[in-house]
Amino acid sequence: MFVVQDVRLDPDTRRAWSGDVEVTLSRKEFDLLHALIARAGEVVTREELMRTVWETTFWTSSKTIDVHLGWLRRKLGDDSRAPHLITTVRGKGLRFELAPPVRAEERVPS
Question: Sign of dihedral through CA atoms 103, 70, 49, 9?
Fold first, then answer.
């Protein structure tokens, strides 16, 4: 069982929860979430995701990841404009955050 922030994922039963609510995921959405949450706090490259989730090393567009990521974020209540669960690390990949990121406007001036 993986538990990060308020998301729980059980790979054995292929079930996921956001808070106390079970979230129904497609097979690919579940596999994408599993690939990210299993390495929470680390950047997972798009190449790694294509290899582990889609079991391919060849693709014509990374839009496949973006589409499934959009559906997954929606189901988990993660706003794509200000994500707190899955963030995009530009030029690197995706990261499932261990804690919500601190926004610039939330920082305390020193």
Answer: positive
